[in-house]
Fold:
Amino acid sequence: MVHVFKTYPSQISALSDITLEISSGEFTFVAGPSGSGKSTLLRILSCAEKPTRGEVVVDGVQITHPDFTKIHQLRRRMGIVSQDFKLLRDRTVNENVAFALEVTGHTRREAKGKASDMLRRIGLKEREDAPILALSAGEQQRVAIARAMVNSPSLILADEPTGNLDAKTTLDVMGIFSDLNHQGTTIVFATQFTGLIKRFPYRLIPILNGQVSDGKKVDTDEVREVKAGE
Ligand SMILES: Nc1ncnc2c1ncn2[C@@H]1O[C@H](COP(=O)(O)OP(=O)(O)OP(=O)(O)O)[C@@H](O)[C@H]1O
Ligand SMILES: [Mg+2]
Structure:
């Protein structure tokens, strides 16, 4: 992203002149205190929010191009873990995860089976038929993670995905993220917990008051050449 600004209608400036590049296959922490702009940055990358100014390229597609319309196509290659989970509250655990597969053309049976496998991996197999509302916040967070991963996306945008988890479950989840990253998945992981960052030797993008200080230089002209919808 190049010279990205985001000012909310309330005139709150959430991001101010952010220029950064995350390479395919990288595991990157976006880290900073509450209110620093982490969620805003991730929401811009997932096309949930438009920047006020600046250019953003995701997976080779310039999402800020005026002609860009293929949000759904792009999102199919993304796994998104929102800070507020965004689960379907009137469905079961399995249905929530399976839903991500059904919308990309898997049969219901296939989707249910794959969802079960993913839930086993994240330690929730025995709760798969429970309604979402019967789960604790940490369990719901794991469902959101399972849903984001089940499609084998090339990019995972995870906003504080371990914020409600205990120490052991956090390490389990970090292990799953690390495995996916070793298999080539790009991971952008927003967190305010410095303990995690110290423990895992991944790239760190520090964010403070909507500004980033990061060593990597970005060729702004190269980003501009990328056209919408490619
Ligand atoms: N929808 C919104 N409307 C207005 N202001 C917003 C909105 N979302 C975020 N903000 C403001 O933008 C700034 C950055 O918020 P953001 O949610 O991106 O921070 P964050 O780093 O994710 O914080 P946290 O760690 O608490 O999740 C804050 O000042 C916040 O109040
Ligand atoms: Mg946030």
In short: DSSP finds eight helices and eleven strands in the chain. The radius of gyration is 18 Å. The chain has two domains: 1-77+153-230, 88-152. Residues 8, 10, 12, 14, 32, 34-40, 83, 192 surround adenosine-5'-triphosphate (ligand 1) (CB under 6 Å).
